[in-house]
Write a structure and sequence with these properties.
The protein folds into two domains: 2-174, OB fold (Dihydrolipoamide Acetyltransferase, E2P) (Beta Barrel); 195-228, no CATH class. By secondary structure, the protein is mostly beta strands. The chain has one helix and 15 strands. The protein is elongated and about 75 Å long. 3% of the residues lie in helices and 26% in strands. The strands form four sheets. It has a seven-stranded mixed β-sheet with strand order 7-8-15-9-12-13-14, with no helix packed on it. A four-stranded antiparallel β-sheet has the order 5-4-3-6, with no helix packed on it. Strands 1-2 form a two-stranded antiparallel ribbon. Strand 12 and strand 13 (145-149) form a beta hairpin.
Length: 228
């Protein structure tokens, strides 16, 4: 875990380089163990953590050897449950449970999974945000390849020995959340956006006057709308 440096949207001289960006509150970034380093050891979920830098739910694991790590939690998992990484044929697929990290070749065809690895031993890359998951479309047993469907609908062919986490990503109601006040946007680093006509002439080409018949332009003077 480390602190993310705030981006104020300004250069070293203090001039605005990115519009509508402002200083935000200090946030901690949790390093996710997407490879499950202690593969063969049983782990206990001891706590859930709210990471402001991601929409998914983060869980704190305690392994049998006393080590700790953060992972993405599957939907339906609670504090006090056990999880494991079955990447070395410790268990047959009939004993697999939600949130287990397994090889794709051991996953039944109708099972959904998330935090999908696309390059061997590189860790999960796809379906890592809240409520997302992938599923299997086609299997080539001769070439040891799997065609999977990503949350966007795109299809991808990857090795059958890539690892995945069983289940759906937790916090599936994230898209139902809303900001209750404008001050929360400021805390997230978003500054107000106003119309060009409400600005001064030095700030925008529309500034200092009311709308007239001249075409609408961007803050840099380029045509913003084209006549069809």
């Amino acid at each position: 875990m480390h602190t993310v440096k705030s981006k104020a949207g300004r250069t070293s001289t203090g001039r605005i380089s990115v519009r509508h960006h402002g200083k935000q509150t200090k946030k901690n970034f949790f390093l996710i163990d997407s490879k499950r380093v202690f593969s063969k050891r049983l782990a206990l979920i001891v706590n859930f953590v709210n990471d402001l830098n991601r929409s998914a739910l983060v869980g704190l694991l305690k392994y049998a050897n006393g080590a700790y790590s953060y992972i993405l939690i599957a939907r339906g998992i609670f504090i006090g449950q056990f999880t494991q990484s079955c990447q070395f044929d410790i268990l047959w697929h009939i004993f697999y449970k939600t949130n287990y990290r397994v090889f794709l070749i051991k996953v039944p065809h109708t099972t959904v999974f998330f935090e999908t690895e696309v390059e061997l031993y590189k860790g999960g890359k796809y379906a890592k945000s809240a409520g997302t998951y992938c599923n299997i479309v086609k299997v080539d047993k001769e070439k040891l390849l799997h065609m999977i469907r990503l949350p966007t609908g795109k299809r991808l062919i990857i090795s059958s020995y890539c690892t995945v986490t069983l289940g759906k990503n937790a916090n599936h109601r994230h898209n139902k959340e809303f900001l209750v006040k404008a001050g929360l946007n400021r805390q997230l680093g978003v500054r107000p956006t106003v119309r060009g006509v409400a600005m001064n002439p030095v700030d925008h080409p529309h500034g200092g006057r009311t709308k007239i018949s001249s075409p609408e332009v961007t803050p840099w003077g380029k045509i913003a709308k084209h006549n069809r």
